[in-house]
TrEMBL record:
HEAT repeats lie at residues 211-250, 774-797. This is Putative WW-binding domain-containing protein. Signal peptide: none annotated. SUPFAM superfamilies: ARM repeat. One of its GO terms (cellular component) is cytoplasm. PANTHER family: SERINE/THREONINE-PROTEIN PHOSPHATASE PP2A 65 KDA REGULATORY SUBUNIT, WW-BINDING DOMAIN-CONTAINING PROTEIN-RELATED. One of its GO terms (molecular function) is protein phosphatase regulator activity. Keywords: Repeat. PROSITE patterns: HEAT_REPEAT. Residues 394-425 form the Putative WW-binding domain. It holds the Pfam family WRNPLPNID.
Length: 859
């Protein structure tokens, strides 16, 4: 960039040539190059800088402000000159022209970075000279200058260029002044916006002690709704910054006020950040306070508030999730994975000390089932003795199977009674001798009435009814004692009824308890939240709330399923099937992209029963839906049993055909997935089914699809030889030679060279097999009439073959043929072929020649 100074009248002006081409990437250009050009004024560069920095021409001052970084670099070697430049910058910051001040402020962040690198020489320069300018510009009367200052402040905070002392003594005080009740309205809105944005960049102590009280005060600002709206929109960030204790103590009351604000925009903003607020609260506050508050937002009279609330409903429910209760755990990379079988709750041993874990809702199916069985036997064998005392009568019953309500209090009672028993009594006998009273069983039966449409619940009601009738013997009077024998017969009838239904109960209980805790859905999340979520598929909701409400429901369904756990999948099954059959392809597409995650949550049994039919439907859907299944095809198939997975071998060929042949990315993604899927099938299945797909993709019209397909072919070869299926590998090689090496089109022959190069690079087959079955056909391409084929051959020789030790070793019978091919390509008439082959390193050629000479000497 060239700069020169011209005189217009009595004013000297800097004329820039090509100034508009200057950018941050142009390191060789300097805006302030004019300072080095000797002028008629005979001034030093520093004096010339001061002259133009305070010139009457605005353009001169703009150029100086825009080139301040170069100025600091030029004068940083001398401390005295550097401090003089700093003083000039401070004076320039007081320029009356807003554009000059804006240009100067935009240069502050890069200058701060430069000073950070030069801190040993100028440790306090930024804090003493530049930081006051940033703070002062926050109150500048010009709007553009203030915005530039706000952006610079956030950049400096994000890059941690501001000292903690400056934050507490310079930044926070000015923001508190600007956000004071008597401050200008425009400044107040800007100040609260900065406070909210910088919350994630400051320490918890600074926010809690300096900014949190003012934020709470601004949440109740009755003068400006814009201030309250900014607070509502950033409420989640503030909660995350201050932590759970401060959130529940100071922010939750203010959040309630904002959720009931008279302006619907405030309530909408609260609904949008509800998940972030819930995430920072305790489970008790989330259930007892935030859940009713969210229900009020869902029922808001304003449609826009209801729409935002329904969009946040699924994410809010997901904050109740506990992956461990669903038999899952979260890896370090954040993905869900199935809990190892060693941690399976169903495998826990039934020990006496397990009763304590039982009171914490960590029961095991085996303990409960065995305890019930022992109870049957003891009741049948000693019925007469049990009627001798009210304490020994069959007066208890415990059956753990959803959707029973929380019985932790009953379990505590059981535990207290168990302490009175003699030591060494097994857990099963302790459970049987300490059971729920008849009044408690009645309460359980009443809670189950609303779930009578579930066949499993009906079976459970029958069992509990039998237990209730048996427990009624607890109120034995004198008259009944005369008919003990008759009652014993009735009791045994009741127990026989219990035994008759036991097989079904045991089967259902074990199925539902085999993974983690079995809590009914209303013990995990409040029932009103679940009811509102299930209603999102109601067509009426699309009319009264949002036409895309079904899409939002589908988007958050995996999170809701994780929260409820696989044992409560029956609550979501109908909703999922409704969404999968939705007429909007966007809804089905959303489900298709997440079905593999849902399969991890549900486990192999529920996946095979409920997800596989829907997955099969997605395979035949529109390409927009199929792409969701295809992108995670490997992730879904690996969760299926081998016999179920094998059914999809033939269906994989359907992915080759698309609705639009121009949709080449679909076929590209198919090839990528097939490379991963190879490990799921045995070599015979790969040869019979996947080989044909790979060869078809290798002939695709789009080059990107062909190149990724060549890698698939190499992976198939590697699969064969890694599993000792050498015969299949040899057959596949012969097919490759016939299909590509002798292809009539030059693209096929070029593909053969690429495949051979990849085979050598990946070392996917023994080298003796390669040199016997592939190398002769590869070297014969040196006489191909198409230069592009010979270029790829030269590239393969240069980058791969001649870099392998095998082709440099003494005694290699194929070395002479390789050398002849290299010499032939070096004399090729095409310059591109010569460029590749001549570029072979001298070491490689020297090694080849040395090996050849050795062979000749030996001969």
């Amino acid at each position: 960039m060239l700069s020169r100074v011209v005189t217009l009248g009595n004013v000297q002006t800097i004329v820039d040539v090509g100034f508009e081409d200057y950018g941050p990437d142009c390191d060789s250009m300097r805006i302030t190059a004019f300072l080095d050009i000797p002028g008629q004024d005979n001034l030093t560069p520093l004096a010339r800088l001061e002259k133009y920095a305070f010139s009457e021409n605005i353009f001169n001052r703009q150029i100086i402000a825009r080139g301040l970084l170069d100025v600091f670099r030029d004068f940083s070697n001398n401390e005295e000159d550097f401090l003089t430049v700093m003083e000039i910058v401070v004076r320039l910051s007081e320029d009356a022209e807003p554009t000059v001040r804006t240009e100067l402020m935009e240069q502050i962040p890069p200058i701060a970075v430069f000073l950070q690198e030069s801190r040993p020489n100028f440790p306090t320069a930024f804090s003493d000279y530049l930081m006051p300018i940033v703070v002062r510009y926050l109150t500048d009367p010009n709007n553009q200058v203030r915005k530039a200052s706000q952006e610079a402040l956030l950049i400096l905070l994000e890059q941690e260029l501001i000292a903690q002392n400056d934050i507490e003594n310079k930044v926070c005080p000015i923001l508190l002044d600007l956000s004071a009740p008597d401050s200008d309205d425009e400044y107040k809105v800007e100040a609260v916006n900065i406070i909210c944005k910088m919350a994630s960049m400051l320490s918890k102590t600074v926010i809690e002690h300096m900014l949190l009280p003012r934020f709470c005060e601004l949440c109740g600002d009755g003068k400006l709704f814009q201030v309250r709206k900014v607070c509502a929109a950033s409420f989640g960030d503030i909660c995350n910054a201050v932590g759970q204790e401060a959130t529940e103590r100071f922010l939750i009351p203010k959040f309630f006020e904002l959720c009931s604000d008279s302006v619907w925009g405030m309530r909408k903003a609260c609904a949008e950040c509800f998940m972030a607020v819930s995430y920072t609260t305790s489970p008790e506050v989330r259930r007892s306070k935030l859940s009713p508050l969210f229900i009020s937002l869902i029922s808001d009279p304003c449609r826009w508030v209801r729409q935002a609330a329904f969009q946040s409903l699924g994410p809010f429910i997901s904050t109740f999730a506990n992956p461990s209760s669903a038999g899952l755990y979260i890896r370090e990379d954040g993905t869900l994975s199935i809990r190892p079988s060693a941690q399976d709750v169903a495998s826990s041993s039934c020990q006496p000390e397990a009763l304590t874990r039982l009171s914490q809702n960590e029961n095991t199916t085996a303990c409960v089932i065995e305890g019930i069985k022992d109870c049957h036997m003891s009741n049948c064998q000693g019925a007469n003795s049990r009627f001798q005392s009210a304490e020994d009568i069959f007066n208890t019953f415990l059956y753990w199977r959803p959707p029973l309500p929380d019985i932790s209090q009953d379990l505590e009672l059981l535990q207290s009674k168990t302490e009175k028993r003699e030591e060494g009594c097994s857990m099963s006998k302790a459970i049987c001798k300490n059971c729920v009273a008849s009044s408690e069983i009645k309460k359980v039966l009443e809670s189950l009435q609303e779930h009578m449409d579930d066949p499993d619940v009906q079976a459970q009601v029958q069992v509990l009814s039998a237990a209730l009738r048996a427990a009624q013997f607890e109120s034995v009077n004198d008259y009944e004692t005369k008919h003990t024998e008759e009652r014993n017969g009735k009791l045994q009838n009741e127990l026989s009824t219990f035994e008759a239904s036991h097989a079904t109960v045991e089967k259902n209980t074990f199925k539902l308890l085999r993974y983690g805790q079995c809590l009914p859905p209303f013990d995990i999340i409040p029932q009103p939240l679940l009811d509102q979520y299930l209603s999102m598929t109601d067509p009426a909701r699309a009319q009264t709330v949002d036409t895309e409400i079904a899409k939002h429901c589908a988007y958050s369904l995996p999170g809701v399923a994780l929260t409820l756990g696989r044992q409560n999948w029956h609550c979501l099954k109908d909703t999922y099937e409704t969404l999968a059959a939705d007429v909007q392809w966007k809804v089905r597409r959303t489900l298709a992209f997440s079905i593999h995650e849902l399969a991890v949550i549900l486990g192999d049994q529920l996946t095979a029963a409920d997800l596989v039919p829907i997955f099969n439907g997605f395979l035949k859907d529109l390409d927009e839906v199929r792409i969701g299944v295809l992108k995670h095809l490997y992730d879904f198939l690996k969760l299926l049993h081998a016999d179920k997975r094998r059914e999809y071998l033939y269906q994989l060929q359907e992915f080759v055909v698309t609705d639009n042949s121009r949709n080449w990315r679909f076929r590209y993604k198919l090839a990528e997935q097939l490379i991963l899927i190879l490990e799921l099938y045995n070599p015979n299945d790969v040869y019979d089914y996947l080989r044909h797909i790979a060869l078809t993709l290798c002939s695709d019209k789009v080059s990107e699809v062909r190149w990724i397909s060549f890698k698939l072919v190499v992976a198939i070869l590697q699969k064969f030889y890694a599993n000792n299926a050498n015969a299949l590998g040899l057959n596949f090689i012969n097919e490759l030679v016939a299909r590509f090496r002798h292809c009539s089109k030059w693209i096929g022959r070029q593909a053969f060279a690429f495949i051979c190069q990849a085979v050598v690079e990946e070392e996917c087959m023994p080298v003796d097999h390669f040199v016997e079955h592939l190398l002769p056909s590869l070297l014969s391409l040196s006489s191909d009439p198409v230069p592009n084929v010979r270029v790829l051959l030269a590239k393969a020789l240069r980058q791969t073959l001649l870099e392998k030790a095998y082709f440099k070793s003494v005694g290699n019978p194929h070395l002479e043929a390789v050398e002849e091919t290299v010499l032939a390509l070096q004399s090729d008439r095409d310059q591109d072929v010569q460029k590749y082959i001549i570029a072979i390193s001298e070491n490689s050629l020297r090694s080849v020649n040395s090996t050849t000479s050795t062979l000749n000497f030996l001969i």
